[in-house]
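Design a sequence for this backbone.
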């Protein structure tokens, strides 16, 4: 059974929620930041948002699939770009060729689009700063690495992996730092050129500063590591750049103004800033957002069911519900309104992020699912893509499985087939349009609160006719002995005839709006007499009509029910009820 509102197994039941929720870290307190190169006349001046359009990027490595944390990163960057009329860029960081996962790239596009995100530039859509796959930009990195070598800000390192390994081992044994000892630093530029020219394999190392770099972060403020960086590699022996180098070269080349990424990258940022400084470039502004952790305060593991996109997809979680859930993992809307569509997130986005680890509690997900289900079923114009995928198609399948179970072909359902008549004509593909009928039924009903199976069960007589036997049995629930029609004692048959005449003659259109006033009058004309008080129960006609049309099942308002069933089916049900009420069924008339 496809649970559509609740994860079937609560994952972190009873979780207390976010660990830190202070928003002291406001953008406005940061001063002395270099201005970014990107400028535009469009100034938006929203509080806690940078002035002018921001260019942001999501830069995943196709070494795995999108997960909750990376979706959140993509979302924050997307929101900042949209909120400032800027651009959101997708860049594939595929320089670690040994770890590539075959279908990661296509899955990434599919999952991001499934979630409702789009990008202005990227490997699949192009853009003026392309190509957007790092493996296709190797010449650019080479040129930049060469430039640093020429300027003596970097140097070739001819040490073999086994040399480096041996050094590490020895240093470790002597309790010394295992960082690169600077073996090739002393090679003269001439010798280095010569060895490179004769084909010796080499990596390129950056000459790091002697003192640790100080960086400014929009969330963590001033950040400085205790130790200086070692001379880190910027170009590997296989000719590919390292993550740090390609990331910096590309963020500069693509005119990225803001980098929002997980706090696990904070530790790498001093390296990046050193590279920016070496090139004489302005670094983008950085915002490192809190790590996602589980209830035990450990980094979310890949095995946590709420990590994988495929889990949300198979559980039927609505993409807007997931985005809403994800956006609040480290960001706060600030105006006490936590249910938001993507557009509303854009509208209220700010750079007020939470500092510190974020405990992921799945408890809130069902709440967002319910809220977004309600929105989806009522909003105009309807979002047909989501409605069809999440409601209409699965409901159609459930109904057709139940139909098969009547002939014993399919037994897995929660509804007793003996309670069901035939499918209503509109549900048969030959006579009606089941998809649009299901959609109308959904929109007329209260938002489903549990599973789609129970929605079908609760509203079964919108989809199937009410069998005579069910009507007969449920007639016992109504006190037809004490019925009055327009204040005079009447039989159930009289009352039904009265209703039938009223509705049969009702001029078109057969819509709830047009039927409701008549329905109200007719319902008021039929009263029950309360046996003890002897008083008439007003609007008894509603209860009576609910028996006629739905065998007394709960469901949408009767005007909507009549509109859904259509005039012909409504009249047919009235006639059948008339027979049942008059006790003439089966006796011939
Ligand atoms: N390629 C890195 C990743 O896989 C990007 C980190 C960053 O945003 O700089 O997450």
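Sequence:
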């Amino acid at each position: 059974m496809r649970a559509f509102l609740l994860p079937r197994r609560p994952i972190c039941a009873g979780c207390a929620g976010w660990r830190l929720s202070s928003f002291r870290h406001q953008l406005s307190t940061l001063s002395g930041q270099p201005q970014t190169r990107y400028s535009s006349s469009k100034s938006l001046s929203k509080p806690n948002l940078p002035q002018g359009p921001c260019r942001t990027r999501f830069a995943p490595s196709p070494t795995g699939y999108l997960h909750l944390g990376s979706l959140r990163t993509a979302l924050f960057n997307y929101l900042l770009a949209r909120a400032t009329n800027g651009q959101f860029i997708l860049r594939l960081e595929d320089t670690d060729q040994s770890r590539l996962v075959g279908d990661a790239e296509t899955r990434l596009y599919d999952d991001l689009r499934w979630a409702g995100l789009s990008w202005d530039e990227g490997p699949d859509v192009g853009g003026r700063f392309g190509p957007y796959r790092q493996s296709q930009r190797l010449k650019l990195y080479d040129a930049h690495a060469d430039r640093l070598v020429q300027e003596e800000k970097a140097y070739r390192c001819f040490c073999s992996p086994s040399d480096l390994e041996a050094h590490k081992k020895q240093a470790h044994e002597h309790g010394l730092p295992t960082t690169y000892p600077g073996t090739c630093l002393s090679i003269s530029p001439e010798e280095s050129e010569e060895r490179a020219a004769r084909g010796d394999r080499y990596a390129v190392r950056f000459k790091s500063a002697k003192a640790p770099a100080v960086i400014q972060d929009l969330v963590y403020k001033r950040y400085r590591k205790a130790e200086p960086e070692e001379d880190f590699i910027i170009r590997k022996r296989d000719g590919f750049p390292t993550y740090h180098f390609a990331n910096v070269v590309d963020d500069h080349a693509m005119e990225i103004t803001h980098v929002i990424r997980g706090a696990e990258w904070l530790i790498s940022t001093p390296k990046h800033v050193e590279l920016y400084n070496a090139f004489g470039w302005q670094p983008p502004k950085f915002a490192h957002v809190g790590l996602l952790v589980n209830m035990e305060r450990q980094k979310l593991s890949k095995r946590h069911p709420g990590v994988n996109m495929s889990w949300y997809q198979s559980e039927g979680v609505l993409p807007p519900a997931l985005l809403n859930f994800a956006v609040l993992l480290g960001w706060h809307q600030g105006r006490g309104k936590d249910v938001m569509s993507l557009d509303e997130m854009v509208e209220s986005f700010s750079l007020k992020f939470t500092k510190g680890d974020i405990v992921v509690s799945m408890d809130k997900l069902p709440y967002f699912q319910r809220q977004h289900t309600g929105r989806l079923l009522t909003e105009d114009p309807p979002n047909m893509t989501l409605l069809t995928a999440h409601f209409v198609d699965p409901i159609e399948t459930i109904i057709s499985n139940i139909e098969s179970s009547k002939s014993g072909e399919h037994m897995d359902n929660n509804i007793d087939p003996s309670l069901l008549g035939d499918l209503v004509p509109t549900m048969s593909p030959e006579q009606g349009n089941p998809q649009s009928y299901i959609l109308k039924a959904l929109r007329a009903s209260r938002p489903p609160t549990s599973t789609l199976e129970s929605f079908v069960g609760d509203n079964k007589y919108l989809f199937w006719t009410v069998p005579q036997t069910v009507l007969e049995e449920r007639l016992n629930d109504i006190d037809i002995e004490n019925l009055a029609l327009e204040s005079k004692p009447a039989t159930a048959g009289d009352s039904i005839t009265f209703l039938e005449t009223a509705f049969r003659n009702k001029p078109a259109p057969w819509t709830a709006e047009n039927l409701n006033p008549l329905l109200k009058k007719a319902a008021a004309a039929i009263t029950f007499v309360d046996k003890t008080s002897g008083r008439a129960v007003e609007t008894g006609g509603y209860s009576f009509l609910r028996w006629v049309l739905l065998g007394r099942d709960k469901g949408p308002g009767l005007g909507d029910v009549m509109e859904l069933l259509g005039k012909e089916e409504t009249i047919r049900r009235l006639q059948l009820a008339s027979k049942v009420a008059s006790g003439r069924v089966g006796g011939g008339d």
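Residues 59-61, 93, 243, 247, 261, 265 surround glutamic acid (CB under 6 Å).
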